[in-house]
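Box 3.1 A note on notation
Throughout this textbook, protein chains are presented in two layers. The first layer is the amino acid sequence; the second is a token string describing backbone geometry. Keep the layers aligned when reading.
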Amino acid sequence: MSTKFARAALAAALGIALVGCGKDEPPAAPPPAVAAKAAATPEGAIMAPIAHLKSGNIDGLMQSVLPPDEYAKAKADYAKEMNKEPASEEDKAKFAENMAKLTAADAEAKLWSELEPQLKELDAQMAQQMPMMVAMGKGFIQSSIQQNQELTEAQKLQATQAVDAIGNWVTTAKFTDPALAQKSIKIVCDTARKINLKTLDEARALSYEQAMGKAGIAYLGVKDVLNVYGFSIDQTLDSIKAETVSSDANSAKVKISYSLLNTPLSAESDLVKVGERWYGKEMMESLKTKDAAVSEPAAAPAPTTN
């Protein structure tokens, strides 16, 4: 699991970096002792990752949700996982082209000159098609939720309500507003400059710490762009409250309440205690399963016959 976790974090960092967005450099990760203290109670185990997510501290987020040995594995395996498959020349050229375009001195003006002529046509199309597209999308996703055998009825209800809230936001957001589009372009370009990667080779050569820092920059920028269009991630994160429903020496159930786009939602999370810290039960079970699979010896090749 650990290697996949690191890989996912980098994908977030560099995948978002290609489209950019921005804010200041995220804060350094907390020392291990601080991360451990934050997860010393069930409520703390829920709220600590939220605080890191709000500040864009991706490394701190990983420290708060992973046991120390799994976190160490993720860091150790990071470079190997990132360079597992060689990048094609086409990918390298596209990356360099996109970053050069986003970071040029006149990037904002050029991007706006390309986008402006399309806005009126896009506005007319969206006015006609968006309600139908959103309704179809919501119906498809909600049907998939109801058919998912791994979700409880409570989880299905929460997911359905979240889809409704996001669908309503997509329907009303002013994506074709010229002023908002210009603000978004500026955020994208500012963030690309802060990420400061010119080539894909540079991106692949990043250390774990460097990659997590750039992931934080990109994530904060995504928050800024969404906020331009009325979706405040910070407002959602600030609304989160955790309350322990039941607990004993080794397990706990925590109720998590929050508001998504003014829609009140709640969920329950099962936690387990490992050492002096609390972790999500499902994540720990997944870790055990995947680590066990990695440690299994490879099957011997079948004997050949003449």
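Residues 2-101+192-231+275-291 form one domain. The mean pLDDT is 85.
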